[in-house]
Amino acid sequence: SLGIMNANANNDRLITKENLPKKSQQFIDRYFGSIKITYVKDERDFLERSYEVMFADGTKVEFNRNGDWKDVDCRHSSVPSPIVPAQIMQYVKDNYPDVKVMQIERDRNDYELKLSNKLELTFDTQFHIIDIDD
Q: Alpha-carbon distance 74 to 103, whole Å?
């Protein structure tokens, strides 16, 4: 059964920032250029390939195989505003004026945000609010 376990193991390896897709490198330079990178991982399982970048301040960013961001998690600060779609940012400002966006995650169907007041908001791809969790 050992062989079966190995077959399912993720094939993660450490790489450098320079090995990331150009788009990911530009994203990092633009929004997190001043923060030291702790590690960069190339994560592969059977169908998916993604990249994870960990920064010294605890921020973690995940990119898909094309280099587009999937998840920006700024545990100890807040997600740089330009990363958050304008309509979503406006909703947050209007409804939670003093609250920071700590994390934003996106996939084909939606955007999920974690706010500093512990709320989780989900928006559809048209930026309409579809769920609020506390």
A: 6
pLDDT tens over the chain, length 134 residues: 444 444 445 678 999 999 999 999 999 999 999 999 999 999 998 788 999 999 999 999 999 999 999 999 999 899 999 999 999 999 999 999 999 999 999 999 999 999 999 999 999 999 999 999 98
What number of other Cβ atoms are within 10 A of residue 93's Cβ?
A: 12
Q: What are phi and psi of 58, to 5 degrees?
A: 95, -10
Q: Are 41 and 51 in contact (CB under 8 A)?
A: yes
Label each residue of 23-38 as H, E or C.
HHHHHHHHHHCCCCEE
